[in-house]
Design a protein that fits this description.
Helix content is 48%, strand content 10%. The chain is mostly helical.
Length: 164
Amino acid sequence: MEKDENRSSGKLQSVLFVCTGNIFRSVTAEYALKARLGADTSCIVSSAGIDARPQSVHDWVQTRLWEKGADPTRHVQRQLTRGLVEAADLVIAMARNHQVFVREQFGRDVPLFNQVCLGHDQPILDLHEMMPDWETDPERARAYVWSVIDVIWATAPALLPRLR
């Protein structure tokens, strides 16, 4: 009951970011929002993936997050579950396939990151979606990954008014 009251009154206590593997987009959003909220916040910020398989956060992602002041070494990827979705006041999808997954698996409609932060109905594409042959041009691929991290990092503060 209290969580429903918090949702309807606009006071959000928890945010869950969702992407595919929980090693790039959603983890970046999680760390970006946590950095803006600071250690004294009571808001719970987390992330999960719709297809989280055992794999490490890529060096490109780790490097850029370190440059932003975040320590991604303690990140443990998580598979999205009904419990995680139901526990979160606000679930934010990074792309349309994540929205569809949450709706079909858990019966909850969730917004895209860009909808919530920028008012744009536009997904944030994963590296392989943007560049199917990314391995043939690693410098361009790294530049794309870093640009996505930079955009998420700069945009996440738009959520702050909803959390305070």
